[in-house]
Amino acid sequence: MGPAMRITGPMHERFAEILTTEAVAFLTELHHRFASRRHDRLADRMRRRFEIGNGHDPRFRDDTAHIRADAGWRVAGAGPGLEDRRVEITGPTDPKMTINALNSGARVWLADQEDATSPTWRNVIGGQLSLRDAIRGELAYTSPEGKQYRVTADRTPTIVMRPRGWHLPEMHIEFTDRAGRRTAASGSLVDFGLYFLHNARQLIADGRGPYFYIAKLESSEEAKLWDDVFSFAEEYLGIPHGTIRATVLIETLPAAFEMDEILYELRDHCAGLNAGRWDYIFSIIKNYRGRGARFVLPDRSEVTMTVPFMRAYTELLVQTCHKRGAYAIGGMSAFIPHRRDPEVTRRAIERVSADKKREAGDGFDGTWVAHPDLIPTARAEFDAVLGERPHQLDRLREDVHVTASDLLDLHIGRPITAQGVRDNVSVAIRYLEAWLRGLGAVAIDNLMEDAATAEISRSQVWQWIHQDRSTEDGTPITSEYVEGLIREVLSEATRFEGDRFDDAADVFREVALQPEFPAFLTLGAYTRFLTETA
Fold first, then answer.
1. Is 341 a catalytic residue?
2. Which 8-state DSSP code applies to residue 117?
3. What is the spatial distance between Cα 296 and Cα 205, in angstroms, rounded to a whole number?
4. Is residue 61 among the annotated active site residues?
5. Annotated catalytic residue: which of 84, 112, 133, 450?
């Protein structure tokens, strides 16, 4: 019996255009070749997390020291359309957001099938339809209120699609291997495979290419797996080796110790690295959640890009990238404007401007924004440094000397406040409520929240409880205390027909108040609430 793939989710309107016989055959081949290695890499993650939790700090690897020491190798670098990345806009792939991103004036659009997308079956395949139509100039959208959206920009951003991380399944597609074992498909391989198969040739014909942001990597072995997937996919379609370009998010603590090695394994396909700040903070909390008071961070708002461990991580990223001819892309400030509140907008622009000025000054070649109105602000800061140059790869940052202890210097010297605890509970529940309704990126209290920022909120609450922390005024942070905050948040919520606040509170309790710490906020909720069967 050969390997097989079965679509278990319902076939909604136009889904057959994406889930074609050819596409299913390609997904089957990807899983046949790579699913087993994916499971091995996920097992490696668990072992490493266990080791860190038991006192074995991550370090720069001895067995790959020769890669770091070899000054001779370089990555492939920018592909066509990726030469200037000074401002990139991020966002989900529903039709309206796709059109807004393509009209935004950014140089690059991160088309996000990961943290900014709630992985409902309609969102997963609907996002593929949006991208397919956009790439062919066929995308249009009419809102329920009758407003029409069209792509009107003369120059649209280069699309870089972000598939889901290795850890995420796709529960609406079932893979059966040669031994007859049935498992949920890999969200990574599904997102990558469908986008690549349907769009690679068209993108190349348009003078760009199939480009990807790779999320949640934790090791160079995981990077090697992606590189092998890319090489196989190029051969499968008969396009030249190295056509694919990947930008890797360095958003986990283990990956920060293997940046050279990740670039090396992906060197034929690599364009650069990105400083995924929010998931990076979450990764540190997750890995050190049980290691004592020295590893407890204060209020989320106090963990800024200027604290020691974040400065070390970003400066090392720029230095590592430029040494290898790779672009260094900065992260996303969460502040967003409010078109009906000038004061909120003023503060957002002020803070985003400072964030982007720091990144451009540190040597980054580009940055992210989450809202089109912030593009001029970010562009001005990078224009001031870059001028007409497309990048600053010549800034090698030889002044940077980052040690393992620098990356683990979590001392901030700020307290945990009662407001900080409450904010975490409130943000996590309100985000989860929207996520359960199919929204993956949500404006909450004038900040853009996605799965990564919600992960920080719930993991901090879990850690504060289990490390017996107290607020600045001496109140112990206990499960009972947090339960009271949950009731407050629910009582103050603006309820409406079809809201998911009660389910969101239940999910929050499962991921923040239980003795065990789920590795990811959304995994259990996805299986329980978002698996569509009819």
1. no
2. S
3. 51
4. no
5. 450
